[in-house]
Amino acid sequence: MALRLTQTHLSQSRVIAKGRAIRDIDRLLRQYGGRAKDWVKKSTAILLVAGRKVEIHWYECRGIGRVEEKSKWLE
Q1: In a 10 Å sphere around its CB, with 0-12 CB exposed, 13-18 middle and 19+ buried, how is residue 11 labelled?
Q2: pLDDT at 48
Q3: What is the mean pLDDT of each run of 10 residues along the chain (75 residues)?
Q4: How far is CA 31 from CA 8, 46, 50, in A?
């Protein structure tokens, strides 16, 4: 099930990790470019979809944008 992030979801997102603290930073740099210090991993607040709790996680880089959205189902 693909979920569409709204402006509200994005404005209420939280940062999970930044720069070199991102586990996949070397892969992100190889695949998308940019500088390590410009990358962040973000998450939405917990959302309720069809009676189930889910968070959407993604990576974001200044100048590149949002990449690799994934759903993390909690129940």
Answers
A1: exposed
A2: 87
A3: 75 93 98 98 90 93 94 86
A4: 29, 29, 34
**How is residue 47 annotated by DSSP?**
E
Query: CA 22, CA 25: separation in Å to the nearest integer?
Result: 5
Distances (CA, A) of 72 to 20, 24, 30, 34, 53: 22, 17, 25, 26, 9
- Say how far apart CA 35 and CA 20 lie, in whole Å: 10
Give the span between the Cα atoms of 26 and 13, in whole angstroms. Answer: 23
